[in-house]
Amino acid sequence: MKMLPGVGVFGTGSSARVLVPLLRAEGFTVEALWGKTEEEAKQLADEMNITFYTSRTDDVLLHQDVDLVCINIPPPLTRQISVKALGIGKNVVCEKAATSVDAFRMVTASRYYPQLMSLVGNVLRFLPAFVRMKQLIAEHYVGAVMICDARVYSGSLLSPNYGWICDELMGGGGLHTMGTYIVDLLTHLTGQKAEKMLMGGGVCSTVTLNFNMPGAFVHEVMVVGSAGRLVARGADLYGQKNSATQEELLLRDSLAVGTGLPEQGPQDVPLLYLKGMVYMVQALRQSFQGQGDRRTWDHTPVSMAASFEDGLYMQSVVDAIKRSSRSGEWEAVEVLTEEPDANQNLCEALQRNNLSTWAELNSGESEGGPRRTPPPVLIYSSDW
Questions:
Q1: Burial letters for 152-186: b for 16+ Cβ neighbours within 10 Å, e otherwise?
Q2: Beta 306-307 vs 118-120: how paired, if at all?
C-alpha cells in the first residue's frame, strides 16, 4: 500500500495547533514536533498525542520517518531550517522568511534540489474564490485589468509580551505579516508584478491594512477591468459586468471547519485563513497520494502554490515599500540576484537611526533652534 509521507511540524503556535489535526484528517502521520523549548514541545505533543517531540532541529530533520517538513515558526528561523531540510532531502512547506536575504538563500537552496517540494504557505491561493477569480480574469470576465484594490481590517496583531512581531528586522509588523501575502495574491491573480510601486501593464493597485479595528475580521480583494469587476469578500466571490445593473454571486464557500480542531487555534486564526489551510492540506494530500515513493510528489494539485521565488518577490516588494516610506520617493522593486552585502541589515538600521537623529535635532525648534526640512514620508500601508 502506498502511503503519504510522515510529517515533521516545526512550531507550537496557533498555526501548528490547527495544522496537526488538519494533516491527520487527510491521512498524514505527524511523526515529530519541534518547539523552541523542550517544555513547549512537550506541552503541545501531549495535547496532540504526538509521540516524538524535541527542541533540537536536527532531531526532526534526521528522523527516519519524516519526509515532509512543515515550518510554522517566527520568520527569523525559517530560512535556517528550510535550507537545511532541503539539503538532507526533505520536502518543505514553510512560512515566509524574515528578510530578502533569507528569502534569496532559500531560493538558492530550492534551485539546488528542484526535485524536492519547496513551497511558501500562502493559503489564500488555495481558496476556491481566488482559484475561480484567477480563471475568470484569464477568460477576460473583467476585460483588461486596470485596478486592484484590497482591504484587510482586524484588531491588533500584538500580544501582551514583546516578540518578533514587534520588530521589523525580524519580519514583524502588519505589512510583513499579512501585506506580503496580499502582494503575492494580486500578482498571482493578474499575472502582473510590481515595478515601481505600480504593477506592470499600467495596473494600479491599492492595499489598505488596518490593524486597529476591533470586531469582525474584514478581508476584501477587488479586481476591476474594462468590462467589469470581481470581488472576493471573505471566501465568497462576486462579479459584475459593466452592462449589468447589480453584482451576482459567482461562488459561495460552504466549507464547514472546526471538527476535530482545538479551541485555541481557530480563535487565533481568521476563518478565511483557516479555510485556506484546509484546502492547502487537501492539495498536499492529492500531490503525494499514489506516488511510488514517499518523497515524490505530483506538481499539478499544488500548481497554485507560492514557490520560494514567489516568497523572494513578495519580500522584495515590501522592502521597496519601506524604502519609499523613508525616502518619500517612488522606489523600484529590486529582486536579489546574488548574495548581498552582509551588513545590509546594519545599514538599514543606521538609516532609521538617522531619521530619529533628525527628530532629536529639531526638538529645539520651539526654543529658537534652526528649522530643518523634514524628510518626505509615504504611508506604505495605503498604496503600493
A1: bbbeeeeeeeeebbeeeebbbbbbbbbbbbbbbbb
A2: antiparallel
The residues with which 295 forms a beta bridge, in sequence order, are none
108-137 b/e with 16+ CB inside 10 Å = b? bbbeebeebbbbbbbbbbbbbbbbbbbebb
Report the first-to-last Cα separation within the chain, whole angstroms. Answer: 50
Q: What is the pLDDT of residues 207-248, one digit of tens each?
A: 999 998 888 899 999 999 999 999 999 999 999 999 999 999
**How far is residue 172's CA from residue 159's CA, in Å, rounded to a whole number?**
12
Contact status, residue 294 vs residue 8, Cβ threshold 8 Å: no
Instruction: Check if the beta carbon of residue 52 is closer than 8 Å to that of residue 149.
Output: no
pTM score of the predicted model: 0.85
Rg from Cα positions in the chain = 22
Q: Which residues contact 384 (CB under 8 A, 6 or more apart)?
A: 183, 194, 197, 205, 206, 207, 317, 320, 321
Rounded CA-CA distance 291/69 in Å is 18
Task: Check if the beta carbon of residue 177 is closer than 8 Å to that of residue 156.
Answer: no
CB 48 within 8 A of CB 57: no
Closest CA to 106 of 311, 382, 275: 311
> Which residues, other chains included, contact 225 with Cβ-Cβ below 8 Å and sequence gap of 6+?
137, 140, 141, 142, 143, 144, 145, 146
Q: What is the tens place of the pLDDT at every residue in 358-370?
A: 444 444 444 444 4
Cβ proximity of 188 and 321 under 8 Å = no
Which grid coordinates are listed for 320? 521597496
Reduced DSSP (H G I as helix, E B as strand, rest coil) percent helix, strand, coil of the chain, to 5: 45, 20, 40
| Residue 158 backbone class (left: φ over 0; alpha: ψ -120 to 50; beta: rest) | beta
| Residues of the chain below pLDDT 70 | 1-2, 196-201, 259-267, 341-384
